[in-house]
Amino acid sequence: MSLVQATEPVPVDKLGRTHFIGIGGAGMSGIARVLLQSGVEVSGSDARDSDTLRELEAMGATVHVGHRAEHLGPAETLVVSSAIREDNPELVEAHRRGLRVLPRAAALGALLLGREGVAVSGTHGKTTTTSMIAVVLQHLGTDPGYVIGGKLVTTGLGADAGTGDAIVAEADESDGSFLMLSPKIAVVTNVEADHLDNYSGIEEIHANFASFVDRVERTVIVGIDDPGAREVAELARERGKRVRTYGEAADADYRITRISARGFATEFTLETADAEDPIEGVVAVPGLHNVLNAAAAVAVADELGHDLQVAVEGIADFVGAARRFEPKGEAAGVAVYDSYAHHPTEIEADLRATRAALASLADEAAEQGRPEGRVVALFQPHLYSRTRFFAEEFAAALSLADEVVVMEVYAAREDPEPGVTGELITSRVSHDHVYYVPGREEVVRAVADLTRPGDIVLTMGAGDVTELGPQIVEALS
User: Domain limits of the chain?
Assistant: First the structure.
């Protein structure tokens, strides 16, 4: 993959009949859904049939399995993802006919035009923060639109047009596609080195965030505890943007204090210059990082003119997003959760959050005469390049778990690299309770055998490790 060529979005009412290549994908299907709800004629194709295709068909889309030139029909606009090859017959036909061809992000950008568009970007936390904003705005009775990288647990949907003025969407920095969005409000959660298969280094990443800031029409909301994001805040001020910040830092506009774990929920206090008294809140997922995501969601609601107290209350409605500390089941006294964490910072945040949750339950465990629970991490590295770049950092983060199992690298879009395997990580973990188990069938049994009642198992990674949680629960049974 590489950085995409930025394309300016077109207003929804100018798109005409719109065809999607790869319409069954999570990102493409969400945009297609919102366009259908907005009255746009939609067609699309995908390599294989799926429930998603049938759902879109039921909404009125014309869908095809397989890719053929004639599937374009009377389309006026073609939407493609970066995964589509230039020799795809539908793309070739679109070029031959001179159709408008838009990258996926430009189609997403079209949805934000003419509305109170909120774009959430950053190296980590985009899906959770976007989901929290949607839930808070729903709690406030505004029926927002949203396009999320995962499914919103409260609705079971990854996207919806909504009827309110606001629409919130993830802004993907991984390939530079967030430079096709022009939101009224942007959230920048953090800025770290990642996707180094696309970027030459952190300097180029910062340059792209600077360009993103230039596209924001009104307000940039920044997680100021993160050094990279703080630089973005300073840059945005220099460029005349309204900047609001959140975090534990003393100079944060939305300052988080008194954070404490209550089992797998987290209590916090929010202080602002405008509120006479601190506001108490709770988020039903563990970890400081999720409290910070909640603060970003509250800041967006406040910036949109909603009542701050009610916005904080709305955070309690958030019960999670798919693949973000998502419960997969429990058996033999062991609970299994799934996490999309695939960067060292994300892994560390999830493992620290899990340890804090278990520590808060230690007294209860002692009263019941059982040992305090342990953290068992099953990690599947994602991309050979990322594994090579961050092997030391992955090992340091995973060392926070009591038991560590590492699978083989999930290749995704890359070819194998000699010497780059999961063992590159396990050899660097700081304790002896670490195992390299490349096989899928073997790894399920290995994880089940490591556990005891009270333990928490976390399946972690951006690949197909997500499928193993239910299998681990079954093995435990």
Answer: 12-104, 115-315, 326-476
